[in-house]
Amino acid sequence: xxxxxxxxxxxxxxxxxxxxxxxxxxxxxxxxxxxxxxxxxxxxxxxxxxxxxxxxxxxxxxxxxxxxxxxxxxxxxxxxxxxxxxxxxxxxxxxxxxxxxxxxxxxxxxxxxxxxxxxxxxxxxxxxxxxxxxxxxxxxxxxxxxxxxxxxxxxxxxxxxxxxxxxxxxxxxxxxxxxxxxxxxxxxxxxxxxxxxxxxxxxxxxxxxxxxxxxxxxxxxxxxxxxxxxxxxxxxxxxxxxxxxxxxxxxxxxxxxxxxxxxxxxxxxxxxxxxxxxxxxxxxxxxxxxxxxxxxxxxxxxxxxxxxxxxxxxxxxxxxxxxxxxxxxxxxxxxxxxxxxxxxxxxxxxxxxxxxxxxxxxxxxxxxxxxxxxxxxxxxxxxxxxxxxxxxxxxxxxxxxxxxxxxxxxxxxxxxxxxxxxxxxxxxxxxxxxxxxxxxxxxxxxxxxxxxxxxxxxxxxxxxxxxxxxxxxxxxxxxxxxxxxxxxxxxxxxxxxxxxxxxxxxxxxxxxxxxxxxxxxxxxxxxxxxxxxxxxxxxxxxxxxxxxxxx
Length: 551
Fold this sequence. Notes:
Structural class: mainly beta
């Protein structure tokens, strides 16, 4: 027994010496795990992935039918708006669908503008993932489970981000975040078999093939299709993404912004993947693309947190870069990293917008005037006096010497809390900006956030804007105490085709006839010169549920 005690004492002394010298394998492992967990936590605080796909659902309350005591859907001339769940080929979907439906992407087939596709967090892989498909201009929708997982890729639970865009020849391309990014093309959104992926040895090839090793540190892909600058009959597919790998997580260090390109082939084969800039600071870069259809130029825009802002906000440089050689090189005004379009304070990612939506996708977007190439850049700008996070815009013009001139700042919104902008330019030069405002909370006992979806339009090149409220609604959920909660999502999309704006956003379905409060993909179309309204498609409708008794 004495011998065993002596041995135990010796082992204890050796263990203590190892602890003091840091040589214990156990201590080393625990320390490494702690560092890894801390890095992962910091990385997740700026990345938008993993997404919030929580199915926020609650019983309808009286305020859902008259938020702020007013009609939730204003009757405005020239505005066509429907809920894709309610105006659906499945008449019972309005009673059964409870998906999150956040973070919408939209595209319109330029060859057949009545064909429209919307994606959102409306389901995931396990079987096929869904998209929302309309062939009659947006009046009737079908939830098609027709996006197959990329062959050879473990994709269950995703898409974890997604974006779609049409090009020529009825080809629609989509990009999808799993652990890496994978992109495919289809000529028939209603058919799973029509999707084409670049598969080598039974495995779909990643879109992000040139980012820093190891893979799987990428985030928030954004896809647009643009005409090739030298081959007018060819479309190229561009995918922007954030590169968070190798420790570059935008928390106290830099993260790279990259754009990968596929040149004129189906399935897409990405053979260029180059850096368009560098983001910094404790915010999501909000990496976006804009395309110039006249000459094939592509713009990359993103955010850089450069200092602390007033009132707990972040001070941000809003960046812009350009490639005129199909993504091979990136430079603007002689600056390889791009130019600063504006500097402003912005409250992101937290406190959460409207108390329920962390801004983990930035507050920035841009679009190009298809007539003259002017770029319109919209961004968040917190008013130091009122504390309101407004939206501002700048017009960027060709300077005649190969560069651009950034115009003065104008405001899209008044003194309101606004976020999640999407800008587009119609063929007649009208500038449209979709955005949300947070309008306070509903009266007790519900105390739910009130949001309005807006379309602001300018006919004087972004100097002044008129505002249209598309929908006012109560959130389907209250603050759950989680800093990464996003009942709406990181972005919404609106695009212009001809003289019309086509958009999709996340909103409460009760004003459209849903029997319970659930966020749905809401489609709208607003035209400068209104086309004929779609002919309603006859369909059976479920018996509406009774409204709740006012309390």
